[in-house]
Input
Amino acid sequence: MAALPASFYARPTLTVAADLIGCVLVHDHGGVRCSGRIVEVEAYIGEADPACHAAAGPTARNQPLYGPAGLAYVYFNYGMHWLVNAVTEAAGAPAAVLVRALEPLTGLEAMRARRGEARAAARDGVTWSGRDAHLCRGPGNLTRALGITGAQNHAPLSAGPLRIHAPSVKAAPLPVSWSGRVGIRLGQDRPWRAYVAGHPAVSGAPR
DNA sequence: CGTTCGATGCACT
DNA sequence: GTGCATCGAACGT
Output
């Protein structure tokens, strides 16, 4: 099964966001393959979008947004969370889709272990005992579970350890709902969050 | 149920 | 120095 080609991402960002629902994010890391079905994403589109990292023009951090479609844009936020995006549109047109939640498919043992490490770092000697459906619920949680870090920033999503695959032909299509984006201050009016309503792995409701 | 709040580091002004 | 595209513990109801 091949990863989605770069041309998949070189389209209008909202189209890419809708089509990413149901696709499978894969990360080969530490000798283990972890994957999950995408059930929640958000679009960040252009310098006119106040919530997009490109709102203030090109900087050292947002450089991948200005690159060609199909790259990963991974950045560190709140001092403790990596967030992973897929760069869309075309070079010079800064836009991306943030992956916010996955339904875990493979590598659950490794996911539990990585989430446990995070928990153990914060608390002393207590193992994480959350439900598996919550392993990849939320953008910071899914990068932690899959082992995605800044090492994957600017990496191509069509080849390499971090990839996105088309939905399985056997899987029924997921219904897509839209809402305002979560966790942002500016730009809440734009209904650019796509998600599977009622799915247990979808993160918190919009503000 | 609900809301508040601290942890934690870096990009940018 | 300020403000995050967050998370979960610790409260209050």
About this structure: The longest helix of chain A spans residues 108-122. Chain A has a mean pLDDT of 93. DSSP finds four helices and eight strands in chain A.
